[in-house]
Amino acid sequence: MFGDMFEEEEDVGFVSENKTMNGWKSRKKDTDPPPHRAASNLSGIKNQGGTCYLNSLLQTLLYTPEFRESLFALGPEELGNLSDKDKPESKVRVIPLELQRLFAQLLLADQLAASTSDLTDSFGWTSNEETSQHDVQELNRILFSALESSLVGTSGHDLINRLYHGIVVNKIVCKECGNISERQEDFLDLTVAVKGVSGLEEALCTFYVEEEHFDNDNLYHCGRCEKLVKATKSAKIRHLPTFLTISLLRFNFDFTKCERYKETGCYSFPVRLDMRPFCEQDNLPDSEYEYDLFSVIIHKGGCYGGHYHAYIKDIDQLGTWFSLDEQMTVVNLPKDSTNQDHLLELGDPVEILKAILVQVGADGVLVDQLGQKLLEKVGVAWNKRYRKQHGPLRKFLESHPDVFLLKADGTRVAVKQVRHDCSGQQPNKSKIKKAQTENCKASTSHADKTETHSKIPASEVHWFDFDDTQVRPIQEKDIEKQFEGKECAYMLFYRKSQLQRPAEARGNSRYKVPPDLLEEIANLDASLQNQRAEFDSATNNIEVHLHLGPEYKFGNGALYPASSQKDSMLTITIDRRKTIGDLRQTIFQLLEFWKGDMVISVAKQLPVGLHLYETFHEDHTSLHSLGIMDGAILFVWNGSQVCGVAIHVGEEFEPMMLKILCPTLKSKEMVQFIEMQKVFTRNTLLASARNNLALSTGISPEELTVYYRKNLENKGSTNWIAYDAEDGHKTLADLRLKDGDTILISDQKCCNLSVLSSNGMPITVADRSWLQVKNYCGEKFSQIAGKTVTIPVTMETLVSEIKANAIEKLKLKDEQGKLFLYFSVGDSLHMTPEMEIVVEQSISVRECLKLMLEKAGLTGECWHLRKTDWCYDAGEVLKDEEATLAYMKITNGETLVIMEGRLPPKGFLMLPVWLYQPPLDSENRGCFREEQENIANKLCALNIESTARDFSLRQYMGTELEYVGNIEISGEASLEDLKTQVLTLPLLQGLSVPSMEFLRVWLVENKCPVKILRNQQQQLSKFKLGSSAEIGIQLLQAEENLSSTELLLRLKMAVPGERMYYPAEEFVWDISKECTVRTLKQKIVQHYSLPPEQIEIAKYFPDQFEWMPMTSWTQQVSKKKKKKKLQNLHGAPYYLKDGDIIGVKNLLIDKNKDFSTVADDIGKEKLKLEGNSKDTRHQATVQQGGDASENPEKQAVRARTRRPEVALSISVADFR
Description:
The protein is an alpha+beta fold and 1216 residues long. Helix 4 (94-108) packs antiparallel against helix 5 (117-123) and helix 12 packs across helix 13 (367-378). The two termini are 60 Å apart. Residues 1-44, 419-453, 1169-1203 are annotated as: Disordered. This is USP domain-containing protein.
């Protein structure tokens, strides 16, 4: 549960006497030297807190050889020297210089990861930019702009344009005169859509192949024709760059929820991209259009945060790539001490952990124990060495699923088994061993390392995953995993396929690196080498205190020096990686007088003297693996005797000194205590100690009582409690007595007597009281049912202690599989008393309900069970009554509610049915009056007197819905079957319906019809009706069979000169071709036979009493986009659906464009009054209860407001 919170804790109290943590020399984290390069031979970049986006882009630029070499080609004569940057009036171009230094370190320095702090300082960034995450696409543009500004006036002034610059041309062609209007746009990266397209090529076709047509009411003004004409618009790429950067628009804005979201759907992109279809000129050679993918920047997370890393192709083959089979050979080390010590030199935590787990075996180890094993093998805890770079240990294991296998719900970890090739071919061990060995060398030997790549064919180029400090080899097919999901591709980098690298660049990390940078990196590696040597010495050299057996005596249960401490102890310094045999040989050389066998044991200094715990027998085991730390105490002796006395070794023989208080009555009101000290071993029985004390005090063992002390809440009082007779068979360790504790002995019976000692300390000596506990566990325990046991108690004994004691003495076990539940009847728990019941976890929900009904005295089958929500109101229905309580995740102590009403069988739906008619106008009101009176009479006949069933014309006009009953129907039934069954309800049997086409079925939500159910033969299960679904039935005057592409609206024509409307009429609109404001307006114009420019339409929102004018002006803005998808009226801001009211204004006779009515004004005023009333009540509550009464959870939510986003920028000096 606590993960690696306690990883660094280790019980080494018996080893060390120094006061540093874990018996180890305290070191500052900053003094640890950087680790060597990993087996991949590629360097990562440190994350400064939120700079993963910067790291991914920098690695991409580094492994763009043409960019890297063009940057290296700029010398100090053009850029200046960093040593002069602080001089006044100096023109030092700091950003490209720092970028050169960083690239050189990443290529050559022998370190696991490089730092970008100098580079970000040159950007003018503060800690805010370094710890806040920004968008990598934005950084790409800003960094290129900063480089362009920094290189003004140098030979590299065109570096960015030469490599990344492209041109797009937009053309509009007039269909009448053929005039072409052309506009040219420059780009450094192409931004393509993700939403609504399946991949990159389709997105490019949308922008650069498809044409947009201007016609109807969306015409183009031609400069030559000087009028609005029909035209076509297209875009083509006129000039392709050498390196094509593509940004994917993964982040969009949801206008419904008013928040950003990330597109995580599948979006494919090719490894080789042909750009010919998207270019203006298509007659060039194929090589001019073909691009190869070489980098993919990946984003993991959401739109408000996440993590970036990059998949990059190693074009120059600078890294050492190996498959998973070869990776396993790195850690498949023999189980001997030599290789265990060799682990200390490994820098990659993946390799270290794998080596440890391989030695453990296939069963693995507990995750919480892996940190301890790492400390034993390496000597540094995970939190001290790796947490800052790699995060918590558990998350690090989870982030490497290809290497580590988490088992048993994530509590155990093992190395994932890799299936080796059955052909008998062995992995290239020599290559891996070469890379592993060279990780420990300085970068001055990098030129020699490149010889190992001679075995790799020139055409074989591999991919690596650059994730901050970690660089791992991957397969090219792994790129397909980034097509979709929360972790998906975000930026794509392509290079022209015709670009070829020179042979001397392959495998040569020094290629084109300036000499001054080579010298700087050589000095850096030399400094790192010295740091590692000093660190190795400081880390592995420990001081050991040797206590010599011939100089010691044994007495009072412990060892003590025969003469002075100085003569009996010897302190030496030794490398902890050496073995016990090496230590013994060193001691032999120092102690020339020693003769005979030499045994080394671990010792600990106790108040009574020295005690021995563990003896080392294996000479080939290293000191570190045995837990011998800095300041350890070791005892050197012959292994059997000290001064002729046999010595018992082990924790069970550890001596403890106890203080013994023996009270004597000085007077009637005064008790005097005699204090003495006694030494016992931890494994001494209390009975033996009592006999020993009886001999010392002269008290008869039968009359001697031993008490232990328990402090009361009142600091001045101490309660002495007598040990039981059964405690006599327990050891002092079992009784939790430790060194220095005090016990009280007495030879008389003391009963609840308060006495005062001679020093004025009030002490209460209390005997125990006794409780009798009888077993009522029932037939299951009939053999011991009725048995009674006696439990000793005091006033401070907890009930849980009594229960545990009783279970132990009655030889009972806690009942497994039992659930203690609360339950109540009804839907308001505070009004009905709660009851309790104990049931088996394995019984079904139906059986549990039956038991609860019996206990509640209820009968019948029209009941069901529900869970309770966080407010203890009736919540989720337990629908699967055949499922067990364990399967339904019912836990101990949970509260359930018995509700009236039978659940439908599995696969059936219980649907409430409402009779629905839209508000009636004066013409149709009489047609339904007779039907209304008929239904009202039936309601009275059924004795339904609720005001909710009042079917007066006024309420019928206002609510539009009238409840008529429930139906139970199979999910496999059709919509036609549903209509047929609805007509069997008692309240609807009198309705005359010629056919099912005269009935319209609505889906009702919050007592409002929202959707028409279409297709008579469609199964109800296809409509995905939930358990809380409700339906409305509407009687029609004619047959209707709406298709899925037809939308039912209600049109209201405004009365000229009045703030009111004519009665609504239904209007069916076919949206199969287009669902836009323009097409809706055209259909309404045809319906009313009015000119299109003389009408205005608006949608009505009845809950807000608002009218929203519907215009098509947004289509004139975004001509480049697909109008169908962006202007769909089903989306924001109109959300058009079945039954919506559309207001129509005829501007020929009514110039007023205000759609609101008097009723709307009244409704808005009511809403305003209700809002003011709520505010008044809230203010009164706050004044009465104060701010402290506010829910702490709400205060916490208010406090967790998202930080405002800050624009990213890079500061550049003026070099013009």
